From TrEMBL:
Domain NTF2 span(s) in chain numbering: 15-164
InterPro entries: NTF2-like_dom_sf, Nuclear_transport_factor_2_euk
Domain of life of the source: Eukaryota
Name listed for the protein in its UniProt record: NTF2 domain-containing protein
Length: 166
């Protein structure tokens, strides 16, 4: 079941759907794991935006270190999204926005979005299937805001709390 409640428009639901359909398959493919940092707010001393990532209770301080973590997964690890839900946290998200973008955007392109994902993961061929819960906050990617993205993500993860559940 894929749902999203939004008072602004359908953008949060579509954004969340695009994210889930891209991110979790990337975790399952060895050749795309190197691209995982592109899904996150980059760690930058000059930006007030800081990524907050927790994977099974382990804090990850820099998204650039994620590929090394995911490369340690057994071969043929597979993530599958079973459902997601989302809602708008802030309709006028401005943290880290360039000064020229501080005014509200009525089209909903400046919001922060809370996304809750549930699914299953199998760590290797023949392994038991386990459930997972993932709570994320997606924010606009200010580096591509208002410009053609050309393969870059319009929405990136500011916060993630991922946990495998029994």
């Amino acid at each position: 079941m894929h749902e999203c409640i939004s008072n602004v428009n359908l953008l949060p639901g579509k954004t969340s759907e695009i994210f889930t359909q891209s991110y979790y398959p990337s975790l399952s493919r060895p050749h795309t794991i190197k691209d995982i940092p592109s899904y996150y707010v980059p760690l930058s001393p000059s930006s007030p935006l800081k990524p907050s990532i927790s994977l099974n209770g382990n804090l990850v301080t820099d998204p650039a270190s994620l590929p090394a973590l995911f490369e340690k997964q057994p071969p043929k690890t597979h993530y599958e999204v079973q459902s997601f839900d989302c809602h708008v946290l802030n309709a006028n998200f401005n943290i880290g926005a360039p000064e020229g973008l501080l005014e509200p955007n009525n089209a909903g392109k400046k919001m922060s979005i809370a996304v809750t994902v549930s699914g299953s993961v199998r760590y290797g061929e023949g392994a038991d299937v386990q459930g997972f819960m993932d709570n994320l906050v997606l924010v606009p990617n200010w580096d591509v805001y208002g410009k053609p993205a050309k393969g870059r993500r319009k929405w990136i993860v500011m916060s993630q709390k991922f946990r495998v559940v029994a």
